[in-house]
Amino acid sequence: MAVGVYRYRDRLGHRLVVILRGLPCAYGKCTFCPFALEQSASPARVIADNRRIIGEALAELEREPVGRVAVFNGGSFHELPYDTVERLRPLARGRVFEVEERSEYVTLEALEALVEYYRPERLVVRIGFETAFEEIREGLLRKGMPDSEMHRVLRVRDEARERGLPVEVWTYLLFGMEGISEESVAESLRVFKRLFDGVIAVRYRQYHPRHPRAVPVSERLARLLESQADLVDWGGDQWVIAGREGAAPG
What we know:
alpha/beta, two-stranded antiparallel ribbon, 10 strands, 36% helix
């Protein structure tokens, strides 16, 4: 994954994807996460890089407007510096605005604050639960998000909607990793589709020798994911980067 501004056309429509520089994740224990490669411990560097990236994103929207903007920072949105958070407001207002969070940052108060501050058409919060099987999520992946936490987040989402907030909660579904069987991926997809507003299937890539190994994906699972998931990230799609073609980040 590379920081920058990307245009992408897929099942979610024509959208802008903004990859910001992030500070180190406060949790930092997931066994497979590659985002440390893009993070910086220097707040000054994070702020400067993100000012530049957000400026590029605003210029892209002037050139060709889109109705959906996703913002990722290799960690949780709530861990971004305030300078970055404030500068994102014109990207979010009146659009479908997507952010990533760890589950502990998803509270009713947080969702209310985000909607009030950014005034999006719809707020989409993506969370990496990865699998519906707690023993895999906590044993192999070390996510620190047990089933009880997953169901708490869903209750928060439901309460937010009862208050009229335009909020959706989506989850990532990880596949193609040693230790996660295709049968469990298929069952996780079924469960996640029932519980969440959207499911994004992500093919695992091994970024570091100490990370779990990647394994081949069968045609049967590929067909299932393509037909049932809201989006499948194979890690090799083509993105349009500021008007030119380039490899998909992440």
